[in-house]
## 1
Amino acid sequence: MKIVEDLVERTLSGMSDEDRHELILSVVERMIGQMTAGERLNLMQHVVDRFLDGLPQEERRTVVRELVPRLMAQLLESGGMSVDDLLWSAMGSLGALEKGASAFTSTTPPPASEEPH
């Protein structure tokens, strides 16, 4: 294994930044293509956790601000949703959270059902 590591290190050190970048991306794409959905999910969780933990706070904010719109676009595309659909779903989820939280703090039981007005 040491021989392979040395060979890879020598090869990478002789490459330009662009070539190294392209090589890493192509290897990662092939590896991800061979993984199961569960393996991809575990990898993504690990990468996100470790990647963000390793960044200084200000850099973390910048990266999240850049990545979130791309992730949201992928989510919308994958779910066949429009931005309006996503916002309505999110508002509904937030409403459910608020109702759940208020149910714990309220002394009166929640209504059995609500009828539209």
## 2
Amino acid sequence: MTTTAKVQDFVKEQMEEAQKRFQVIEGEARKALGKIRRFNAKELKFLENPKATVNATVKQLGKKAEAASNEMKKRFDALQDQLMAFSGVATQGQIRELNKELHRLAKKVDGLIEKKAKPEARA
């Protein structure tokens, strides 16, 4: 076998291996393209600017968590009010209202006592 034939065989083998590698790469590219086609517009937008998309997602999750927290607080307060009403124990708000009413009535009583005391002082 001549040197030219050896070189040709070597080049031919290299070309065949390159073609095989190219076919493998082409197959992987087709698979990847198929997967990309299955993405919806939102997912593709994420690929364009992942940091902004993650920040927006985190912000949305934060809002949802805050809303859920507020809802749970309302439910807890309602449950607490129901428990207080059931047990017969006055809530802090009810105690404040009672204190205001007692204070108002005490002023009225003091005013009535002073009115009665004044005529006695004249006599």
